[in-house]
TrEMBL record:
Residues 6-66 form the HTH tetR-type domain. Gene3D superfamilies: Homeodomain-like (1.10.10.60), Tetracycline Repressor, domain 2 (1.10.357.10). GO terms for molecular function: DNA binding. It comes from Umezawaea endophytica. This is TetR/AcrR family transcriptional regulator. It holds the Pfam family TetR_N. Keywords: DNA-binding, Transcription, Transcription regulation. Residues 29-48 bind DNA.
Length: 196
């Protein structure tokens, strides 16, 4: 008879996400996970199947806890374009304050495991779709209020912002002065505002 689970699965997934985010998939061993999470290897395998299963759970948690917060943040009231700028600059600030910036878990996973891992490819695609949809919702609101031009190609602009965000996450890991990217973000955002 299997022993009852003695850990909070959501807490384990959350802490595993942070560990994978910091060390990468290959850089995180099962020993690292069990030591950091305080979970017996047998319990880990029974719950998640293997390290890969736990990684997929961590990517799903990232989607739900990070990516899904974008649309509500952009639609919280008031002008949207400054909120988009704040989201982008927030990642720059995080990187500037870290000794070893870790970028974005999704960009890291794509760089480390794709192509070649269909399950991770599906998870990465899901997260990017949620992010792009969040930007789309924000831009649609900006068009409705006249903050963004009525002629704005919203789907293309949402895709551009998603590419900007993910590219930014890669660059901040290597740039010794991430704050210099503020001007690049502002240049990219210029085309979104309505000419008044």
């Amino acid at each position: 008879m299997p022993r009852p689970r003695t850990f909070d699965e959501q807490d384990v997934v959350d802490r595993a996400m942070e560990l994978f985010w910091t060390k990468g998939y290959e850089g995180t061993s099962v020993t690292d996970l069990t030591a950091e999470l305080g979970v017996h290897p047998g319990s880990l395998y029974r719950t998640f199947g293997d390290k890969h299963g736990l990684f997929l759970a961590a990517l799903a948690h990232y989607r739900d806890s990070k990516a899904r917060t974008l649309a509500p943040a952009l639609l919280a009231g008031g002008p949207v374009l400054p909120r988009i700028r704040a989201v982008l600059l927030g990642w720059i600030e995080v990187a500037a304050e870290q000794d070893a910036p870790r970028g974005c878990l999704i960009a890291n996973a794509a760089g480390e495991l794709l192509p070649g891992d269909p399950a991770v490819a599906c998870s990465v695609h899901e997260v990017l779709t949620v992010v792009e949809d969040g930007f789309r919702q924000g831009l649609e609101a900006a068009v409705r209020t006249g903050e963004a031009a009525a002629t704005l190609d919203v789907p293309a602009a949402a895709a551009m912002l998603t590419m900007l965000l993910e590219g930014l996450q890669v660059i901040v890991k290597a740039d010794p002065d991430p704050r210099r990217l503020v001007a690049a973000v502002d240049t990219a955002l210029l085309g979104l505002a309505s000419a008044r």
